[in-house]
Amino acid sequence: MDGEWRKRLGTGALTLALCGSLAGLAHAETFTLRLVQTNDIDRMEEDAGRGGFAKLATVVKSERRDGPTLFIHSGDTISPSLLSGIDQGAHIIDILNHMGVDAMVPGNHEFDFGPDVFRQRLSEAKFPIVSANVVMPEGGGPANSAASRMIEVNGVRIGVYGLTTDETPDVSSPGDIVFTDPLETGLDAAEDLRTAGADIVIAVAHTPLDVDLELVRDHAADVVLSGHDEFLTTFFDGRTVLTESGSQADRVVITELVIERTEADGKVSVSWYPEFRVVDTLTVAPDPEIAALVGSYEQKLDEALGTAIGTSETPLDSRRAVVRGGEAAIGNLIADAIREAVEADVAMTNGGGIRADREYPAGAELTRRTILAELPFGNRTAKLQLTGAELRETLENGFADYPGIDGRNPQISGMTVTVDLGKPAGQRVLKVEVGGKPLDPAAKYTLATNDFMARGGNGYAVLARAKRLTRMQDERLLASDVIDYVVARKTVAPKLEGRIAME
Fold first, then answer.
1. Taking a C-beta distance cutoff of 8 angstroms, is the pair 450, 349 a contact?
2. Residues 316 and 286 in one domain
3. Does 337 share its domain with 242?
4. What kind and span of H or E run contains 72?
5. Phi and psi torsions of 214, nearest 5°
6. Is 389 helix (H, G, I), strand (E, B) or coil?
7. Helices (DSSP H) in 282-406: which residue ranges?
8. Does the pLDDT of residue 264 top 60, yes or no?
9. 63 and 208 co-located in one domain
10. Before 315, cis peptide (omega within 30)?
11. Following CA atoms 409, 414, 419, 424 in sequence, which dihedral angle do they give, to the nearest 10 degrees?
């Protein structure tokens, strides 16, 4: 018994000695923080089984059920959808208010309807908006926003700040709102957050890829969740994460931060590493609550599409033979609208893109549905720069197939063209005038057109080579530009003006 007791005592003494030595060792806890990211989502409904807010909501709720999760929105959301053209994006903010956003940064499209609407939409948001480099004319950042916020998860402090592209004044309508340099602002914001005790810094950035990479290079954050380019991206250089979730929530990037929090001698240290998942929302069922909310707004959109937006004092004819056979009054209306929308010297759109194939009598009411029926392809308005020689070459392509059926024939604005269809293709354009002056082959002109032609569609290869002055991600729906043109005037009177003369 004495021997057994001594054996036990020895074991106990060893245990006590070990406990004493372990008192100075670290206590570590590991957990996973999920970052669910969306960006560039203005389409509220799914399309071909992917995207939309209801499917996005399902992804967010699923991740939250599995553990600590932050839902991050990297901007561009209140515009440029059809319903946003009616309610200036109020429906988007309402939907997001039901989804538990943890942080959102304004994108450039949040300014599309001007500074007053920007202020109004932010005032309606019931979720945190982070905006470090947007400076209001009244001073400071936007109301109902903060430059950054601190979120504590399992004892780990997550600092989050927001950046908006400083190209916004060039691509949107922010008025006298100022945008400071994103990189400089980001470096300062990250330093402030780290000084305040942030263990991990997240930049929610709506900035171009070159700026994103500068943020990564200079370690202006540990994680950069970006938008604007609409890329599907996951990147880690061993120190900084960069992700982007494409657009429209068709696919959603989940960044899992595996975090280890270690506490020793009263000091806490945090280490982490990332893992990435991409959720294809084709495989996701829509969330019933958000689907019902989206459905209610779709019904409102349907009702609004049937409401008259203006009247045409002159008859319009979109029959196939008319819009593909020469100058058409409705073609003039569309070309004038897109030229005005992007403030171009001239405009050109293909007759084959005008599709309703119907006649409208003088005095006919025009609705949004009317315009969408005429322009059903979802094309966007692009602005290009090209020389006079290139513009002539573009027009030659437009008349090369007369009297063909491929729809390439142009409807134009801001210029007049005289053509001889008896000449060989490529030599049919006899004379071009822009703004009443002869075309200068060496001069540079700006052209408004649709993105199909800008990509080289219908044989317009010269346009695919031209300098594009608008970013594809920022281009508005062509139909919306025409709708806005009619809404602004209430009454339009397009007619044949001799823009295209055929000899």
1. yes
2. no
3. no
4. strand 69-73
5. -65, -40
6. helix
7. 288-305, 320-323, 329-342, 368-374, 388-399
8. yes
9. yes
10. no
11. -60
What is residue 265's three-state secondary structure?
A: coil
The tokens for 167 are 């190209």
Residue type, 333: L
Kind plus residue range of the DSSP H or E element containing 10: helix 2-22
In the chain, what is the straight-line distance between the N-terminal and C-terminal CA atoms, in Å?
124
DSSP 263: E
The pLDDT score that the predictor gives to residue 20 is 40
Q: What percent of the chain has pLDDT over 90?
A: 87
Average pLDDT value over all residues in the chain: 93
Convert the pLDDT of each residue in 312-370 to its tens digit.
999 999 999 999 999 999 999 999 999 999 999 999 999 999 999 999 999 999 999 99
CB 396 within 8 A of CB 456: no
Instruction: Name the pLDDT band for 6 (thresholds 50, 70, 90).
Output: very low
Q: Domain span at residue 392? A: 311-502
The CATH number given to whatever domain includes residue 433 is 3.90.780.10
pTM: 0.82
Residue 5 lies in a domain: no
Q: How confident is the model at residue 80, as a pLDDT?
A: 85
Indicate whether 403 pLDDT > 50: yes
By the 8 A CB rule, do 95 and 111 touch? no
Amino acid at residue number 445? Y
Instruction: Indicate the angle between helix axes 90-97 and 115-124, nearest 10 degrees.
Output: 20
Burial class for 15, CB neighbours closer than 10 Å (0-12, 13-18, 19+): exposed
Does residue 23 register a pLDDT over 60?
no
